[in-house]
Amino acid sequence: MIPLALLGIILAINFGILACWTYFLVLISWSISKSPKLEWTARYRIKSKPKVSIIVPARNEEGTILICLQSLLSQDYDNYEVIAIDDSSTDKTPSIISELSQKNHRLIAVKAPSRPEDWIGKNWACFQGYQKSSGEILLFTDADTVHKTDSLSSAVNTMIHGQLDALTLVPKLKCYDIITKFTLPVLSIFLHSRYSPLRVNNPKNKIGYFFGSFYLISKKNYEKIGTHEKVRQELVEDGALGRRVKEQKMKLRLVRGENYVEALWARDPSSLWHALRRIIIPLHLQKKKSAMMVTAIIFFILLEPFLILPFTLLYFGDFLLGGVLLTINLVTIFLLLTCSVVQSHFGLLQKSIYGLGFVLGCTVITLCFLISAFDSKGNKVVKWRDRSYFIDTKQHPFHL
Predict the structure, then answer these.
(1) Regarding beta strands 145-147 and 166-170, do their DSSP bridges make them parallel or antiparallel, or are they unpaired?
(2) Cα-Cα-Cα-Cα dihedral of 218, 206, 143, 385, to 10°?
(3) Which of 148, 228, 250, 316 has a beta carbon 3.0–4.6 Å from 127's, enabling a disulfide?
(4) What's the pLDDT score for residue 382?
(5) The pTM is what?
(6) pLDDT of residue 129
(7) Residues 242-265: pLDDT tens digits?
(8) d(CA 382, CA 368)
(9) In angstroms, what CA-CA distances link 285 with 120, 290, 296?
């Protein structure tokens, strides 16, 4: 017999979880339907065509770098250069870049010099690309992206027509393994709820964000926010740059560009795991108490409805409050499923069936939060692009 007081507390907690998922469903539905798309602004045509320097950092990307560069070199915009930076690759990436640069004068091959100890690899490579650039506008993109031929012209037209200081596109995210496909809809619900275009585009909102696969910024404004040098120790450097743009009260616009840019998010379960840790661990470095609270909230929102379901079925069915709790629990799980399916189909533009794997997605995300929060070691390790970053939680920055 469970005391009524305890049952009341459990009921209140689950009612709060139900309210959270109701909020998420309303928010993502509203955001998906109201967020601006690049297609809406592709009709703009401008007379001036400022030179654009496209900066592509690459480390061990032999499987993706060729198609990425070919898509960039096929743009219908006629005033741009592509700067591909080899970030100490150990595969065929340098030779692919070099061979292609000999065939196309737009492509500039750069070998990044030895990286200082207090720089993250990608940030250092981006900074080298900036130093070699000659354009008025900079486009930063990743070596595992594919761009439609009119993505650059549409984005530049939008940026100039809207008198924007910076523009970033939400890409179509690709993944290959089933675990990532099940996990991504759940994860993107949280990311979308915070970094919705409707939030980022609101000048009264302090939230700023760049998608690393595609963000345009004038060189003048890039220098004003301190370049990648100011975020040299950030694992999520694109998000950090986006925040700096908003802090400087610049006009930033985030638009959906899934029909223009495709980006590879995670290549296998291992890279998925470390991609999650790449997001989570910086939270513990910045505000440990807040991060622990977030971890607890994630546990209750994602896993508690499933963990408590057997008990509601076995023990609470004969009680009035127990029946109410069971109803709330089942409705919560249904809302979670609905959010995952909606986000998978309309937000990520992948098959709705991947939203049905929400239980696995919830488990992976929760475990990663918990393990990252209660790591017994003194240092936390994140693997990213074949490098291990040993993060001292007592001393910032990162040690490689």
Answers:
(1) unpaired
(2) 130
(3) 228
(4) 62
(5) 0.88
(6) 97
(7) 999 999 999 999 999 999 999 988
(8) 12
(9) 16, 10, 17
Of 135, 139, 131, 132, the residue nearest 158 (C-alpha): 139
**Reading across the β-sheet that carries 145-147, which strands appear in turn?**
145-147, 261-266, 172-175
Q: What pLDDT digit, counting tens, does each position of 55-108 carry?
A: 999 999 999 999 999 999 999 998 999 999 999 899 999 999 999 999 999 999
Rounded Cα gap, residues 170 and 48, in angstroms:
26
Residue whose pair of structure tokens reads 């000999």 in the numeric block: 102
Residues 6+ apart with CB under 8 A from 253: 36, 158, 159, 162, 164, 166, 167, 168, 200, 201
Task: Find out whether 352 and 345 touch, Cβ atoms under 8 Å.
Answer: yes
Contacts of 318 (CB under 8 A, 6+ apart): none
Give me 270's structure tokens: 């291992």
Beta-carbon count within 10 A of 289 CB: 8
Please report the DSSP string for 274-302 in residue order: HHHHHHHHHHHHH-HHHHHHHHHHHHHHH
* Top-confidence residue, 391 or 132: 132
Confidence of residue 40 (pLDDT cuts 50, 70, 90): low
As a whole number of Å, the end-to-end CA separation of the chain is 55
Has residue 392 got a pLDDT over 60? no
**49 class by beta-carbon count within 10 Å (0-12 exposed, 13-18 middle, 19+ buried):** middle
